[in-house]
Write a structure and sequence with these properties.
The protein is of the alpha/beta class. It has a domain at 20-191: Phosphatidylinositol (PI) phosphodiesterase (TIM Barrel). The chain is 31% helix and 17% strand. It has helices spanning 30-38, 79-83, 103-113, 128-142, 157-166, 183-189, 204-213, 225-233; strands at residues 15-17, 43-50, 56-58, 116-121, 151-154, 171-176, 194-198, 217-220, 238-241. The termini are far apart. The protein binds SN-glycerol-3-phosphate and magnesium ion.
């Protein structure tokens, strides 16, 4: 396995809509991406996992309980079963009938909307490697040239390892909650181009370490413009926000 230092990319905007625009529309839905675009977002982030029949679907939690009218693990439902669920009315009656989209449906919608994206690989617990393989392979195969190159990310280092093997040319960032002492070793080993970090957890000292190492970093989830200013002053490149309309 080879790994290398990646050149920082320059096309990621300062504002990335989190799960679409999770404060304004149901997360991880096509309706949410349409809303994000209408609010001025140029990029969105969303979460990808595998259904029982290995269709890549957009979903955040291991179970469907919080964001649909169903119950149970995503990994124990076929795509047809997931597709029958209402993924909008929990957020607002205005979004009744919104569905859990597949990744390929999402890519088609992003292409129409002209939205760039950070594709977070979000495996159901225990499915890390396979999810990394399938999401990365589909990204490499399906991402259109009309959009900025896809940016994969994951909290799962195993998923990113698989992504690197299956689709070495698809850009990768490591997602951190607690940033370990050996973060830079992982960054190099996984051929990452950036670190995606919790705004809550990011210390001034850690920001300085990223700057000194020349590693771009982006912060989630930032809904307060004053907090965004603090982060940008520390050298943060982009923020993930539920409310892109708050940031002009
Ligand atoms: O990718 C940034 C952010 O989405 C990571 O946290 O839990 O919202 O997926 P989470
Ligand atoms: Mg996410």
């Amino acid at each position: 396995m080879t790994s290398s230092r990646k050149a920082p990319r320059t096309d990621v905007p300062r504002i990335i809509g989190h799960r679409g625009t999770a404060g304004n529309a149901p997360e991880n839905t096509i309706a949410g991406f349409e809303k994000a675009q209408a609010l001025g977002a140029r990029w969105v982030e969303f979460d990808c996992m595998l259904s029982l029949d290995e269709v890549v679907v957009l979903h955040h939690d291991d179970t469907v309980d919080r964001t649909t009218n169903g119950t149970g693990l995503v990994s124990e439902k076929s795509f047809v079963e997931l597709r029958r669920l209402d993924a909008g009315s929990w957020f607002s009656p205005d979004y009744t009938g919104a569905h859990i989209p597949s990744f390929d449906q999402t890519i088609a919608a992003l292409t129409q909307l002209g939205l760039g994206a950070n594709v977070e690989i979000k495996p159901v617990t225990g499915h890390e490697r396979r999810t990394g393989q399938v999401v990365a392979a589909q990204t490499a195969a399906l991402w259109p040239v009309s959009l900025p190159p896809a940016l994969l990310s994951s909290f799962s280092l195993e998923a990113l390892e698989e992504a690197m093997t299956v689709a070495p040319d698809v850009d990768r960032a490591i997602l951190w909650w607690d940033i370990p002492k050996d973060w830079y070793d992982h960054h190099i080993r996984l051929g990452a181009s950036a670190a995606h970090v919790s705004a809550k957890k990011l210390s001034d000292r850690q920001a300085a370490a990223f700057r000194e190492a020349g590693v771009p970093f982006r912060a989630y989830t930032v809904n307060d413009p004053a907090e965004a200013e603090r982060l940008y002053a520390l050298g943060c490149e982009s923020i993930f926000t539920d409310f892109p309309d708050r940031f002009s």
